[in-house]
TrEMBL record:
SUPFAM superfamilies: Oligoxyloglucan reducing end-specific cellobiohydrolase. CDD domains: Sialidase_non-viral. One of its GO terms (biological process) is xyloglucan metabolic process. It comes from the Archaea. PANTHER family: EXO-ALPHA-SIALIDASE, XYLOGLUCANASE (EUROFUNG). This is Exo-alpha-sialidase.
């Protein structure tokens, strides 16, 4: 796999180009392909030495968006309209209101809104809360219904913190929003964020006593995704297994089935053609290393009834793992899937996972991977 390097962005994007956005511990990297993902040209790092928990692209407005953390200045959102040549920070970064007793410590996730509200963008932060921008990321407003939720004072963090890391919009209605919070679970709003309810039915939290194994909230969802072609179908990789919902999150079914482990962080979905779900199992929540010392992606073509490994091209000895934002599918035909590791390897498949190849080796620890066609 050819990877050509360039320290700066190119300033424009071509129709038919594929973008791969990689957020790392030491900056953001942009990879671009114009030959059906055969070769990639990289630029960056942008924000050298700063943690980038999420780096994504808003196709509606053709802008790059990055969550940028600084020990000195705190977290903010950076925006580029020219493919990384120049950047500007939000004029009003996400901040909790005075008197709340809360401070934003990390920006975990950025999600562009639906196509018919082109300037709306959602943001998930730590401590867990939802923010929204109505001006393409220039200013941010906290969602007061989530901030003041009746259960907030009982929310507990997962190992990575009390973070809102997944935001799912619904193209059928701008009022429908799902969020994934560790370790609170799935929350749903059907009225545009004016109120929130938990959607954790049948999702176990067996780190609690047996009597409260299925609580109203407290589940540790690691990542949440939606099948855009069948939007009532949701999947989640959870601390306690892989789960599927066929009724827009109201009820969940454990689909861990024949996976070698229930534990993992990322989950990706190719919903454009032949629906395939991808996960990356780890030994468990204590060691958090690949099973038998080899990292493997596992996939299902029947919504989790059966799973099979896809590891051709991945080294037989590979003790790295992939974080919750670290694996994405592009929805092309055939499907491309990409994952970035905690030791800086970036891999891809152009055939749905049949074979894997390296795009880049030697990046800083990778926090997030996003992919988008222009």
């Amino acid at each position: 796999m050819t990877n050509k390097k360039n320290a700066k962005g190119s300033g424009f994007a071509r129709k038919g180009e594929m973008l791969l956005m990689v957020g790392t511990k030491k900056g953001a990297f942009l990879f671009r392909s114009v030959d059906d993902r055969r070769t990639w040209k990289s630029s960056g790092p942008f924000f050298r030495g700063r943690e980038i928990y999420h780096f994504t692209y808003d196709r509606r407005n053709r802008i790059l968006l990055a969550s940028v953390s600084s020990n000195q200045w705190g977290p903010t959102v950076a925006i580029s309209s020219d493919m990384g040549t120049t950047w500007r920070e939000s004029t009003s970064p996400p901040r909790f209101p005075e008197g709340s007793g809360l401070s934003v410590t990390r920006v975990w996730h950025i999600t562009p809104g639906t196509a018919d509200i082109p300037d709306r963008i959602f943001l998930g932060v730590e401590p867990a809360c939802l923010f929204v921008s109505e001006d393409s990321g220039e200013t941010w407003t906290v969602n007061t219904a989530m901030l003041n939720h009746r259960t907030r004072n009982k929310w507990q963090p997962g190992n990575g913190g009390l973070c809102l890391h997944s935001i799912l919009t619904d193209g059928r209605s701008n009022d429908r929003i799902h969020t994934g919070i560790s370790a609170v679970g799935t929350m749903f709003s059907g009225d545009g964020g004016r109120s929130w309810e938990f959607q954790n039915r049948n999702v176990s939290a067996d780190f609690f006593p047996e009597a409260i194994k299925y609580p109203e909230f407290g589940q540790c969802v690691h990542k949440l995704v939606r099948n855009e072609r069948k939007p009532d179908v949701l999947f989640q990789q959870n601390h306690c297994g892989v789960f599927r919902s066929r009724d827009n999150g109201k009820n969940w079914t454990n689909i861990t089935s024949n996976l070698p482990s229930r534990f993992g962080f990322p989950i990706a979905l190719d919903a454009s053609h032949n629906p395939r779900v991808y996960v990356a199992p780890l030994e468990g929540d204590f060691s958090r290393i690949p099973i038998a010392g080899r990292f493997s992606v596992w996939a299902s073509d029947n919504e989790g009834k059966e799973w099979f490994p896809l590891n051709s091209g991945i080294p037989e000895v590979s003790y790295y793992d992939v974080l919750r934002e670290g694996m994405k599918a592009d929805g092309e035909d055939p499907c491309g899937v990409y994952f970035g590791t905690t030791t800086g390897q970036l891999y891809q498949t152009r055939n749905g996972g049949d074979t894997w190849s390296s795009i880049s080796d030697g990046l800083p620890p990778i926090y997030s991977v996003e992919v988008s066609a222009i």
